[in-house]
């Protein structure tokens, strides 16, 4: 991929620039906990975006996407926003840096990526983090890593129409090989935990479906959580998020909230605890407990939060039948991937069975991604 980028850059701009990269991410456990003030547990992966960049001494950005075979040129003022959606990610990063007082000029760039699109591994965060990190370095802006992650998040909010949390950009910037990161979504405190599952593979199985329910269902579930917090606060005014609530508090208001809202809150309270349990297990190298908690998350997302779907439940059932250590839906739900912690000796059998059974049931094969936990945003050369 690097050579392809280098060749295209030389062809377009007749010079050479510097290479930067940022990764996509997985989240081992902790889904729908972010907006409830809880914990998430992501890690950067060995798939990401790579960009070659060189300042061009003008007020213009000249950008080429190898994957889309598309070129865009734009200025750096608010009125210069490009029409191509991919170019808006780069433009947004530039604008967010400028808003923070960063003095940047025009540049030439070519980029490509190997983060699978639509698999819930955050290709957009990888793209934003690549450019935030690169521009900070090229123009000697001295922006700290947290602010780089926030620049990516603000790009999504203000230029791409996605009101996302901080997890994806945070993992892309702060990733560390051999470690997952527990991020407290309320305080933004974080801690690295060792993740070296010797004898295991971390495997994503992409269901290759995305059901349309996702955005409206997300908003409904968020509202359910807020309803329950409001009910609990009447007795416990200190409770700001479901992260502050216990099952005892939830049971106190069982008669005051709908059965649906109760189920949603039950899942979130249990999931926040599962993240903490997984952290404790990893400190002991106890991957069996990690796997057990992953299955618990899938069960909760399927039956209590109701954001799974037939295809994901099917893949989770196959994992269980094959003796896979841990498996769950990864991401918001209604499609996308399952993340699986698989013993090396079971890997071939699991993949074979998953592919054949899924094809027989749904008429198409899933996609397979083996991932390794890797470093975050960095300069390559």
From TrEMBL:
GO cellular component terms attached to this protein's record: cytosol
GO molecular function: ATP binding; galactokinase activity; metal ion binding
Keywords assigned: ATP-binding, Carbohydrate metabolism, Cytoplasm, Galactose metabolism, Kinase, Magnesium, Metal-binding, Nucleotide-binding, Transferase
PROSITE patterns named among the record's database cross-references: GALACTOKINASE, GHMP_KINASES_ATP
GO terms, biological process: galactose metabolic process
Segments forming domain GHMP kinase N-terminal: 89-176
Domain GHMP kinase C-terminal residues, every copy: 281-358
Coiled coil spans: none
The keyword Cytoplasm appears for this protein: yes
InterPro entries the record matches: Galactokinase (IPR000705), Galactokinase_CS (IPR019741), GalKase_N (IPR019539), GHMP_kinase_C_dom (IPR013750), GHMP_kinase_C_sf (IPR036554), GHMP_kinase_N_dom (IPR006204), GHMP_knse_ATP-bd_CS (IPR006203), Mevalonate/galactokinase (IPR006206)
EC number: 2.7.1.6
Residue ranges of domain Galactokinase N-terminal in the record: 8-55
Pfam families in the record: GalKase_gal_bdg, GHMP_kinases_C, GHMP_kinases_N
Protein name (record): Galactokinase
Organism: Parabacteroides distasonis CL09T03C24
């Amino acid at each position: 991929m690097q050579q392809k980028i280098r060749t295209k850059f030389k062809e377009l701009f007749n010079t050479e620039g510097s290479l930067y990269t940022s990764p996509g991410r997985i989240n081992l456990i902790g889904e729908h906990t972010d907006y409830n003030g809880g914990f998430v547990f992501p890690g950067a992966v060995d798939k990401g975006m790579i960009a070659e960049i060189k300042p061009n001494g003008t007020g213009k950005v000249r950008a080429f996407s190898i994957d889309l075979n598309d070129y865009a040129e734009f200025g750096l003022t608010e009125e210069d926003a490009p029409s191509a959606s991919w170019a808006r990610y780069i433009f947004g990063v530039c604008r967010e840096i400028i808003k923070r007082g960063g003095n940047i000029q025009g540049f030439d760039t070519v980029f490509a990526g190997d983060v699978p699109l639509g698999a819930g591994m955050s290709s957009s965060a990888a793209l934003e983090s690549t450019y935030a990190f690169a521009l900070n370095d090229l123009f000697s802006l001295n922006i700290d890593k947290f602010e780089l992650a926030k620049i990516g998040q603000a790009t999504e909010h203000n230029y791409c129409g996605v009101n996302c949390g901080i997890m994806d950009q945070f993992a892309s910037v702060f990733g560390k090989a051999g470690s997952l990161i527990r991020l407290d979504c309320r305080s933004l405190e974080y801690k690295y935990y060792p993740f070296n599952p010797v004898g295991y593979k971390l495997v994503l199985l992409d269901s290759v479906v995305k059901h349309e329910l996702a955005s409206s269902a997300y908003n409904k579930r968020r509202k359910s959580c807020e309803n329950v917090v409001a009910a609990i606060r009447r007795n416990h005014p200190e409770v700001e998020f479901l992260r502050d609530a216990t099952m005892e508090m939830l049971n106190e208001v069982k008669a005051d909230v709908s059965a649906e809202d109760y189920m949603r809150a039950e899942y979130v309270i249990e999931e926040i605890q599962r993240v903490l349990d997984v952290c404790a297990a990893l400190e002991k190298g106890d991957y069996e407990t990690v796997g057990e908690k992953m299955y618990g998350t899938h069960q909760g997302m399927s039956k209590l939060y109701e954001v799974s779907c037939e295809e994901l439940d099917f893949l989770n059932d196959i994992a269980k039948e094959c003796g896979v250590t841990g498996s769950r839906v990864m991401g918001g739900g209604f499609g996308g991937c399952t993340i699986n912690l698989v013993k090396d000796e079971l890997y071939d059998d699991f993949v074979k069975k998953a592919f054949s059974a899924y094809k027989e049931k749904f008429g198409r094969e899933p996609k397979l991604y083996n991932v390794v936990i890797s470093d975050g945003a960095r300069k390559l050369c």
